Automatic annotation (TrEMBL):
Residues 102-275 form the Tyr recombinase domain. PANTHER family: PHAGE INTEGRASE-RELATED, PROPHAGE INTEGRASE INTD-RELATED. Pfam families: Phage_integrase. Residues 1-78 form the Core-binding (CB) domain. Keywords: DNA recombination, DNA-binding. Belongs to the 'phage' integrase family. GO terms for biological process: DNA integration; DNA recombination. This is Site-specific integrase. The keyword DNA-binding applies. GO terms for molecular function: DNA binding.
Amino acid sequence: MGNKPLKLYTKPKYNFWGSVQYKRSLNLFCEYFGEGILIKNITRSEYQKFLNNFGEGRADETVRKVIGCLSQYFRDAIYDDYLKKYPSYNVDIKGTNKAKDESTKFMTIKQYIDMIEYFKSRNEMSYIFLYILAITGARYSDVINMIELDLNEKDGLIHLRGTKTANADRFVEVTQKDVQLIKYKISKLPKRLDGKIFSLSHNAVKKSFNHTKKQIVLKDDGITPYALRHTHTPYLLSKGIPIEYISKRLCHYNISITLNVYSHLLDEHKKEQAQRVRELFS
């Protein structure tokens, strides 16, 4: 890059939705600076102006996603010796719109547990899928391509064939009983010729999720299937699981992403831990 335009860097290894996000970020950059601009000629202040301009009418989280996508290109360029410094180093994330209220992203722990129990009670494909999302904190894209070999009952592991990022392929620890239950339920489903377990659209998953909401009397329209992933974190934190482990389990690129997304939960957890320390010395 320094002597190359950013447009020359592409990320074909990401899945379709990931590619859309990266391409969109790249197009935003090129529309602002011009496709032929050399990154070495862009100062941090100019890059900050670009972010400020993009942040008009958008939430901080939206700006953060663009920064994250562009940073991947910058990292590749530095690795290939085309660039010596990040133009995005220590930039401010400033959107002008407030993000959605956190209550629209998280369920209570009780609602989360009630959902899991309801998923377990059903044998349909969509509920098995939702059950896996709930107990692993996985995304739709992590689970949709699973095959039966991904269910390791002996070691209590579920192999997630994630495609959102290059390192999304991972093994997640669950109980042996969880794997046994999932394997039993999928054994009753029709077998697919391609070996994959699931054949579900986003809408099919959402429909079953919304039905579950009615069953447990959860009336918040802002709660979507993605809330299972968001609530997985506070549930683990409430059980004393370290944030470092949770970050890897969720397959965040680095722990700073986890800290940013769940900062308010960590503050609450810190208060709880502080009280436990006081009790130790009381």
